[in-house]
Amino acid sequence: MASTEATSMEEEKTVPPKPRFEPLKAHEMSEGGVQFRKVNVPAHRFTPLKKSWMEIYTPVYEQMKVDIRMNLKARKVEMKTKPDTPDVGNLQKCADFVHAFMLGFDPMDAIALLRLDDLYVETFEIKDVKTLRGEHLSRAIGRLSGKGGKTKFAIENSTRTRIVIADTKIHILGSFLNIKVARDSLCSLILGSPAGKVYSKLRAVSARLAEKF
């Protein structure tokens, strides 16, 4: 018995440690080539982009080490990797961050896409849930926002997401589970559920989510 234990201890000593590799830099991943991303600027987001340019430029260039510029002729925000870009994934994160801003998210909310890995943006349209026209569509959009945006803020705060309602399109920024809860609440409102019923369901679901974490 003692000899078996001694043998196992010797084997443990002889097992070499796991190798640790440094993450590949962006220029190494692309074999020295530069990688690019382009994000279209819709006409209605051109003025907000000019106002918030430094809020977008600073984290992308200084923190993520990615070159960024505005191409006025093509009306696109262009990004490319630099030799000192620490990770090739930074370029895609920056593209997602700029794209989220173009969808209507505040830069302070969209910046979470740069800092956290499990966040993404999901988009769906009201007609995907229910075909509504005219006044019925206007009332559905009104139900989603609530008086002074009260309903939208309640869903955002309960699910730890950010929601943008742009005409008939709805964009949700958050983690997978939280987006699902927020989307279910918004779909219930589109289908005609009263806000009070949605609030009570939200409270129950958010309490369950809190227990999980």
Automatic annotation (TrEMBL):
Disordered: annotated span: 1-23
Compartment(s) where it occurs, according to its Swiss-Prot or TrEMBL record: Nucleus, Nucleolus
Cited CDD domains: KH-I_PNO1_rpt1, KH-I_PNO1_rpt2
Key words, A-Z: Nucleus, RNA-binding
InterPro entries noted in UniProt: KH-I_PNO1_first, KH_dom, KH_dom_type_1_sf, KH_PNO1_2nd
Keyword Electron transport: no
Family to which this protein belongs: Belongs to the PNO1 family.
The protein's name in its UniProt record: K Homology domain-containing protein
Organism, as annotated: Acorus gramineus
Lineage of the species this protein comes from: Eukaryota, Viridiplantae, Streptophyta, Embryophyta, Tracheophyta
